[in-house]
Design brief:
The protein has 34 helices and no strands. It is mainly alpha-helical.
Length: 869
């Protein structure tokens, strides 16, 4: 069939011009010249051939003309048929495209409304197919999983079934098969698979079942031996042998388990943690009694009695000690556990410790502030006491089954329940120390604010109060004497100072058992040391108030030592600070400071505080934390070997300064009282010309202006002797200072004053007044002289007045007559010997007149005060 592009050419009419041109071209190509054209034969042949061709073409034209309409009609029919088919195919193509789009929508969109949508949960067909493939794979894996589980359960049941035999250890070969199978599962399956974990859990349950079976047998056998009580009768040998057999079987199970469960298998510490199986099994009846008494609603389970469960355990350890050490120790040794590896008593204690540990973990949250801070402190204190008692029993954690591995790594000492349970949690320890601080401050306030806080105790009261105090508050050297020592010559504290020493001692008892230096440091710096600082500051501020009130400008300034109730009348309160009342206030301050100083000096040498001070100096972290702490001494810079002093040196120094200040105020108070009344007397003249009476027994009478100062001095010394140690302190310290101040005051105003001149009469009067001062002092210090002895005490009273007495002797020398006795000297003789004589003359004068304190220049200066010099 011709192409459609030829149809226009076929239907076109013949072109005459084209025919002619082709004919001319053909003739021209055939006949090149005229001569060729003349040859007729060739031309005729060409004409005939052309005619034949023409006839042939005419025949074909006729035939073509005849068939062309037929073929054209047939082509039109075929073309119409093909067009209809094309239309049908195009329509089918669109339908197929819509169908494909619908199917794609169904595969991708589960919300489509295609009839091909699956009804299984709204999943698409593709998703359904994928889920079916996954389910098929899971089914296959599940089948394999069930086969493995079946194998595990079969082995586990076989082990547990064999455990009922007479020899439970015969199950160990089967258990080893199970163990190896579990290890292969862990090594072949990828990480994160659940089957290995389930297999390990099954292995643990299987081993626990074995252990539980043998443990139950041991518990049953122990009941026949009266465990955990002391047997009242002899235990039958059959029961003893049964107990020994079950004990050794359980121990053998554990020892074989140590071989099977290798650490490199990394199955956790389930198989290697804990104590000895037999010891833990024997603990079951003890646990039952424990839960009955201390974990229920019975009256023995009381929050305010934490010492009850602790005492119960300590009594149990004490009662069972012989059984544990002898019987159980021998069984352990026969089972292959030597005593140098595991101490039976330490192992038993280690098995008991989870009981009080769990008890503390359950109780302490309900005791935290603000619920029961006092019970929290009491519970922790009892826990510390329990820890100390356990250590006293010889508990060694390195000689327990669980702690035996620590020997190669350097086992540490048992830290105790308090450190492990309470101190290990910062919030619990902070709550405890805050509660202790609050209680201590409240107790401090009660001690210092009570009505009798500053009352000095008498001997009977002190004996009663000291009956509950150790050596901390009582003086370690001078004051701790036996009953035969006179109590009048000992320091007697105020109630507040004695209460402070008791309180500080109680605080020390509470935190001294703490195992960590850091915890002991916090307790000392946050609870104990601030009380000392506050007490010394309290006394110091009271002395400041005393000085202000005693001044001539004071109105009203409250002071603890001056009185507890505010007084609207300033003059009345100032009056209360005068005389023996003011003296008593100062004495209360002094004895309070001295008593606390003595306590601190004794504590500073105790091993606990020596060790604490060494820890603070050697621990770098503690040295840093001492910077903001008030009241600590300076740290040593050269390490432990360079540590000097004690931890209380700073406070002792502070209290010493307060004591020195108080002593100075005491001296000033007495001297001020005496000097105030002495003003009128010292304004008198000593140059009276009247001669003495010729009667040798007639002595100069004391002027009335001197009686009051003498009485005040005697009264004050007597009062001091009743409140302070008379012979060891008053006469040795205060009395010397008072007399030194008074004698200097009198000498400056009566002897050395420019206007003061002495006649013989005036000199005798001054000499008698000096003797009156000495006698008044002797009367005021009767208790001191009685304690020291009459002769020695008399010289001690007179010694501070010696310089003034010697001046009285010089100004009272007779002018014209000899003195009594052969060695008596007259005034002019003494002047000549001292002015013009040599050393021998001076020695003679000193010996005769008993002058030892005054220098030669001072003697001459005194002699010049006589009118007849």
């Amino acid at each position: 069939m011709a192409s459609s592009s030829l149809l226009p050419h076929l239907f076109a009419l013949p072109s005459p011009s084209l025919s002619q041109s082709r004919a001319v071209e053909s003739i021209s190509s055939s006949y090149g010249c005229w001569e060729d054209l003349i040859r007729d034969e060739q031309l005729n042949q060409d004409r005939q051939a052309t005619q034949h061709e023409l006839n042939t073409l005419d025949a074909k034209l006729a035939e073509s003309s005849r068939t062309t309409p037929i073929e054209l009609n047939s082509a039109l029919l075929r073309t119409s048929s093909l067009l209809a088919s094309a239309r049908e195919v195009a329509l089918s193509r669109h339908e197929l495209a819509d169908l494909v789009a619908a199917l794609l929508g169904q595969l991708e969109d589960p919300l489509s409304t295609s009839p091909f949508k699956s009804n299984a949960g709204g999943y698409t067909l593709l998703e359904t197919a994928e889920l079916l493939l996954v389910a098929l794979e899971e089914s296959q894996l599940g089948e394999e999983y069930l086969e493995v589980v079946e194998r595990l359960l079969a082995l586990s049941e076989e082990v547990q079934g064999l455990s009922g035999r007479s020899d439970p250890l015969s199950t160990l070969p089967t258990y080893r098969i199970l163990y190896d199978f579990v290890l292969r599962l862990r090594s072949n399956l990828p990480d994160g698979s659940t089957l290995p974990n389930l297999a390990v859990d099954l292995l643990k349950r299987t081993w626990s079942g074995l252990r539980r079976k043998l443990s139950d047998d041991l518990v049953l056998a122990s009941t026949q031996t009266s465990w955990p009580f002391k047997p009242t009768t002899v235990t039958p040998q059959v029961d003893v042998e049964r107990f020994n057999r079950t004990f050794l079987s359980l121990l053998a199970l554990q020892l074989e388990g140590e071989k099977i469960h290798r650490p490199e298998d990394r199955l956790g510490d389930f198989f290697s943690s804990g104590g000895l199986y037999p010891m833990e099994a024997l603990l079951e009846p003890i646990k039952q009694r424990w839960r009955f008494h201390f974990e229920g609603e019975r009256a023995t389970n009381r929050l305010d009695k934490p010492e009850w469960p602790f005492t119960h355990l300590l009594n149990l350890i004490h009662d069972l000690r012989p059984t544990i050490v002898e019987w159980i120790g021998e069984l352990l040794k026969s089972g292959g556990v030597e005593a140098d590896v595991v101490d039976p008593l330490s192992e038993f204690i280690s098995s008991l410790l989870p009981l009080p540990t769990n008890l503390l973990l359950a109780r302490i949250p309900s005791l935290l502030p603000p619920q029961h801070p006092a019970l929290l402190a009491h519970t922790i204190h009892q826990t510390l006491v329990f820890d100390h008692s356990i250590r006293s029993e010889g508990y060694d954690v390195s000689k327990t089954w669980a702690g035996r591995r620590g020997k190669t790594a350097g086992a540490k000492e048992w830290e105790g329940l308090a450190a492990g349970v309470v101190l290990g949690r910062e919030d619990w320890f902070r709550a405890w120390i805050d509660g202790e601080k609050e209680f201590s401050l409240e107790e401090y306030g009660r001690i210092t604010n009570s009505q009798e806080a500053w009352k000095i105790l008498d001997s009977f009261e002190l004996e009663i109060e000291m009956s509950g105090v150790g050596g901390a508050g009582d003086d370690s050297d001078d004051d701790e004497k036996d009953a035969s020592t006179p109590t009048e010559d000992r320091w007697r504290p105020t109630r507040s100072s004695l209460g402070m020493i008791k309180l500080l001692g109680q605080i020390t008892d509470r935190y001294s058992p703490l195992p960590s230096p850091q915890h002991r440091f916090l307790f000392f710096t946050e609870v104990q040391l601030p009380l000392l600082v506050a007490y010394s500051s309290r006394i110091s501020s009271s002395l400041n108030a005393f000085e202000r009130l005693a001044s001539s400008f004071a109105k009203i300034v409250p002071g603890a030592l001056a009185g507890h109730a505010s007084n609207p009348n300033g003059m009345a309160e100032t009056t209360a600070l005068k005389g023996v009342q003011g003296l008593g206030s100062l004495c209360k301050a002094l004895v309070s400071v001295r008593w606390v100083m003595k306590g601190l000096e004794g504590w500073g040498d105790e091993m606990f505080f020596v060790q604490l001070w060494a820890d603070i100096n050697s621990d770098a972290s503690l040295r840093v934390r001492t910077a903001p702490v008030e009241g600590l001494p300076a740290l040593s810079a050269g390490g432990l070997s360079a540590i000097e002093g004690t931890i209380f040196d700073s406070q002792i120094s502070t209290l010493g300064l307060i004591a020195a200040r108080t002593e100075e105020m005491l001296v000033k108070h007495v001297c001020h009282e005496v000097e105030h009344e002495l003003k009128a007397h010292l304004s008198r003249r000593w140059d009276a010309p009247a001669p003495l009476s010729t009667d040798s027994e007639d002595q100069p009478t004391l002027p009335p202006t001197l009686l009051t100062p003498l009485t005040i001095l005697s009264t004050h010394l007597t009062y001091l002797s009743t409140l302070l140690p008379p012979s060891t302190y008053v006469s040795a310290t205060l009395y010397r200072s008072i007399v030194s101040h008074l004698s200097y005051h009198i000498i400056q105003r009566a002897v050395k004053a420019g206007w003061s001149k002495f006649s013989e009469v005036g000199g005798k009067e001054f000499e008698s007044e000096v003797q009156a001062w000495i006698e008044s002092s002797r009367i005021g210090l009767r208790s001191a002289t009685a304690a020291k002895g009459a002769g020695r005490g008399g010289k001690g009273v007179e010694r501070p007045w010696r310089k003034m007495r010697e001046m009285g002797t010089l100004v009272g020398l007779p002018a014209a007559e000899k003195g009594d006795g052969e060695e008596g000297m007259r005034f002019r003789e003494v002047v000549e010997l001292m002015q013009d004589g040599g050393e021998e003359d001076e020695k003679k004068v000193r010996k005769v007149l008993d002058v030892k304190e005054l220098t030669r220049a001072e003697i001459l200066e005194v002699l010049k005060r006589r009118l007849d010099y």
